[in-house]
Amino acid sequence: MDEMLLRIGYGAAFSGLEHGFGPGPMEDCLRKSARALFEEAMEDRVGFGWLGLPDQSPAPLDETISWLRGFDTVVQIGIGGSALGNQMLSCALCHPCFNELSRKERGAPRFYVADNADPEGTSAILDIIDPSRTAFIVASKSGATAETMANFLLFLDALQKCGVTDPSENILVITDPQKGALRAFASETDCRSLAIPGSVGGRFSVLSPVGLLSAGAQGIDIGSVILGAAAMKESLLGADSLEDNPAWVLAGASILNYRHGRNMIVLMPYADRLESFSEWFCQLWGESLGKGGKGSTPVRAMGAIDQHSQVQLYSEGPDDKLFLILTPTARFDLKLPKPPFESLKSLAYLEGKGMGSMLELEARSTAAALIKAEKPLLWMEIPVVDAYRIGSLVFFFEYATALAGLAMGLNPFDQPGVEQGKRYTYGLMGRPGFEKDAGEARERFSSAMSRSVKV
Length: 455
Ligand code: PA5
Prior knowledge:
The chain has 455 residues and is of the alpha/beta class.
C-alpha cells in the first residue's frame, strides 16, 4: 500500500502577497500554538480531547455494531457535529447508491440521518422504514438540542405506535456521561448508551462513537479510519517546521491570506465521494474560527460541477478567497468509448481516455486558471479515497483548524454564537428557564420586521 497520506503544493498559496512562508514570525507562532495544543491535551482540558481519539481502539464498539447490523435500517438522529461526520463517512466510503442496493449487495442495514427539524425530511424517513426493524442512534453531546429532541420524540412515538413498548430494543443513546435529557432517558429505560467524552466537542467528535458506530454498522472499516488518523497524528506531532508539516502550511496560509483581506476559504474536492467532506469541514472551520470579529468563511464547492457555476466568480470576482483543491491521485475509472455515430466524430478526442483522468485534469485546469488570475491556492492530493486516508484527512483538518485558532488568539473549541441560537429556540418553544431568552428573541426579531414591504 502507498503509505503517503497527503501532499500539499503551496507554491501558489501567496499569489499577490509580498511575503509567503519562511522561517520567521508565522512559523514561530505556529510552533508555539502546536506546543500549547499538545500541552493542553495532555492536561485533558475541555475541547482538546479529540487529540486522543486516534489512540483508542474501536474494538469496544464491536458488540454494539453487531447489534446495529441486525436491523434493516439504522437512523442517526443528531445535528451538526452529531450528524455531519456520519454523512461524510458514509458518502466517502459506502456505495454511492448504498440505500438503493439490495440487503445482500449492501451486506448491511440501510442508513439515514435525521438532522434537520424539517417535518418533510422526518416524515419521508418514517414513510420508508419499519420502526420496529430500525435502530435509532440518538446522538447529542448536550443531550438537549431542540432539533434532535424533536426528531427523537417523533421516532420514539413511531416505535410505540407500531407496538414497541420497550425503547431499549431499538434505541441507542450517545451523549454526555452525566448530564442532559438523553442521559436521564438512558437511565430510565435502561437502553444502550455510550458517552461522548467530556473533553471532545461536537464538531471534533467524528472519530468517537458519535461517528464510528453508524459507520461500522454500514460495514465501513473503522479500524482503518482510526489507523489513518493515528498515522496522521504521528506525522503532524512529529514535524515542527513549515517545510515538513502540511497542517502548519494550511493554518499559516489561511492566516496570512486572511490578513490580506482573503476572508473566505473554499474547499473544492474533485470526487463525488468527498462532497460531504466539505460540509463537515465547513462546520469545523466556521464554528471553530468565526469569533471575536475574526474568521475566514468556509465555502463548499464541488469539482467539476462548480467550474460551470462558481469558477467565473472565483477567477474574476473579488480577491477575497483562499482555494483548497482536494483530489485523489488514483480513483475508479471508466474508459470512454468510441463515438458510435459520424455526427459525433468531433468527440473522438475523448475515445479511450478515462473519465476519472479527465476529472483529475479538470482539477488541474481549475488550479491553472486560478493561478493565472493570481488567486491563492493550495493543491491537496491524497493517494485514494479509502478509510485510512479519510481518517487521516479528518485528523489533518481538525489539527490545522485548532492550530489556526490558537495562532489567531481565539478559542477554537467553544461556539457561543451557536449556543445563543439554541437558547432563543428553547425560549421561543417554551422551555422553562429560558423565558428571558424568549423575550429577547422576540424583541430582536421584531426589529427585522419593523419595516417591511410586500407585493
Ligand atoms: O460543535 C458543536 O458543539 C455544535 O455544532 C454541535 O455539534 C451541535 O450544536 C449539536 O449539539 P449537540 O451534540 O449537543 O446536540
